[in-house]
Amino acid sequence: MTNIDAQNVKYEIRIPNAKNHYAEVLIQTVASEKGVTKISMPVWTPGSYLVREFAKNVESVSCDLNSQPIAIDKIDKNTWAIPSKKGDKISFRYKVYCFELSVRTSFIDADQALLNMASVLMFVEGKEKMPGQLTIVSPAGWMSSTSPLSFMSQDPMESHPTELFAEFENYDELVDSPIQLGNFQTFEFEVSNVKHRVALVGKNNANVEKLKLDMQHICQTMTNIVGVHPCKSYTFIIQNVEAGGGGLEHKNGSTLMMSRFGYNNPSSYQGLLGLVAHEYFHLWNVKRIRPVALGPFDYNNENYTKSLWIAEGITSYYDELALMRAGYVSRQDFLNTLVGYINNHENRAGSKIATLHEMSWDAWIKEYRPSENSKNNSYSYYSKGLIIGALLDMTISKATNGKKSLDDVYKTLYNDFYLNTKKGKVKDGMGYTDEDFLNVCNKTAGVDLSADFNKWLKSTESPDYTSIFKNLELDIKKVEGNKFNWGLNYELSNGKTIVKYVRNPGPALDLGLNVNDEIIALNGVRVNNDLEATWMKIGKSESVEILINRGGLIRTLFGSFKGFNEIDYSISLNVNQKTNDYWLTEGAVQKWLSVTK
Is the peptide bond before 139 cis (omega within 30 degrees of 0)? Predict the structure, then answer.
């Protein structure tokens, strides 16, 4: 690399031996001032709110200053300090172990490399906003490459170059651009005149022509929400794996995981389309319309916000809604999915412990680190955020007699906070606060929704589901009562029935059962991973005697079975809907649920 100055950073990634799972990285820059130049590895990656400590995979760090080797110090868990003066030329080298295949991490083996930049490339502190260049030297024989970055060959005469070159505007763009290398199938389609590239990585049984048409249809469905496509191009990387799933959004692309032989399974395939919808809608919701805390990013620390219920929860609502809008699920199927989320949430003990704002704020310590007690003291901002997204959509629809919807909220947010049409242009958009989001919702609905927001976001009180769904002329029923439920989960492990979760409150807890207990017998009858069936078989007696093994010691628990209250909502289409303009408007809910549409 040449022509380095104080205003840029140059990176080089080499994979000399893919079988050993290492990437070798060279960072070149010029010291901006006298003192110390700090180079740090991010501790997390945007879109996945967990400190993952990527520096744990770094080794063999060295540095040259003005072409001479120098000693450097590691000053904290992810930062190296280089003594330097203004104008010194710095060449910083290290190796990073890449063998964790997920959408958030990096993976290299003999067949491929998936590089998520936050887990591979360090940043020069103070130069995060500066432009730079990236060169990648991949193994010979790897004929395919793709990324949201625009790569070009260093040698334009090569048909399948092993050395690729790209420029980036700033470190945020670099981190937001995963790179896939190897040999894989690709296809393309267009949405709103924007070119979309899809990489199908790994053996799979996809019907490519069907997948292409379905992905195009889903992407167009999501684009119609805001009505403006923000990209010049978009890249999907689909990793086909033996087991697992998930996705991660980027500003001009996304990485998805799919069961390699699940394409001919209707449920699995529908799940993929929902995942496509979810990550694609993040183009607008979070990558451009974002909470104020999520950009510019602090890669050394947690970035806290109370608004992940908007960023992820409402996106989850739209991915379910999209499947109905695009015709992949029926209206009743959509309602069944929605009520399933409601019932699961309302019957989760943690729903009465933490507010939705608290769950967003605590994502860093709870969402990705569940324990045996998580169901008792927490829940996911994805699930309740989905529910609140639906209730908000329906409330706006009712307040405006079907003339406005949640779509209109996002159109306004896009114009006012990303494009800044009313606030003065700010590069890459302004972040919104909770108050900003509420104000846009109030403006769209034409009424003050503060009381609803306070209940939904700042309390553990259940929403008034019945009134909201009836306002949309949907039939909703609520059944509440004491159910036959022990309030525990268990699994068979080495022939033993082992307790994995105990509900608080619940019958199992009242009887004194703990997580990790082995259940041996119930009322003198052997239990073989079938506690409920055994109880039914012996007559569901209220008096209970449970024989357990706890830490190698046998003991008997005595008590009486007392169930706990469970809620069961059901929602269905109302065949007696009135045929009027309300049901014919292009809103996000009422048109799509109209019996007469």
Answer: no
At 77, the amino acid letter reads: K
For the ranges 91-105, 147-161, 510-524, 534-548, which has the lowest average pLDDT?
Answer: 147-161
Whether the CB-CB separation of 235 and 228 falls below 8 Å is answered with: no
Alpha carbon distances (Å) from 379 to 47, 335, 346, 352, 453: 18, 21, 10, 10, 18
Domain 488-563 has CATH 3.20.20.10: no
Give percent of the chain above pLDDT 90: 84
User: CATH number of 185-265: 3.10.450, 3.30.300, 3.40.1350, 3.30.2010?
Assistant: 3.30.2010
Residue 482 confidence (pLDDT) = 75
| Predicted pLDDT at 183 | 97
φ, ψ of residue 404 in degrees (nearest 5): -130, 160
pLDDT greater than 70 at residue 373: yes
Task: Name the class of domain 9-180.
Answer: mainly beta
Whole-number Å distance between alpha carbons of 369 and 42: 19
Q: What is the DSSP secondary-structure string of 297-322? A: --TTS----S-HIIIIIIHHHHHHHH
CATH number given to 308-474 = 1.10.390.10
pLDDT bracket for residue 1 (50, 70, 90): very low
> What confidence score (pLDDT) does residue 429 get?
82
DSSP-based helix, strand, coil % in the chain, nearest 5: 30, 30, 40
> Has residue 431 got a pLDDT over 90?
yes
User: Which residues have a Cβ under 8 Å from the Cβ of 127 and sit 6 or more positions away?
Assistant: 8, 9, 29, 32, 171
- Helix, strand, or coil (residue 525): strand
Residue extents of the structural domains in the chain: 9-180, 185-265, 308-474, 488-563
Does residue 59 have a pLDDT over 50?
yes
Distance, CA of 114 to CA of 148 (rounded, Å): 13
Question: Which pairing describes strands 89-97 and 152-153: parallel, antiparallel, or unpaired?
Answer: unpaired
Give CA–CA dist 198/34, Å, rounded: 46
List, in order, residues 6 or more apart from 52 with CB less than 8 Å away.
43, 44, 45, 104, 105, 119
Q: How many CA atoms lie within 13 A of 481 on its CB side?
A: 4
Strand partners, 546: 522, 557
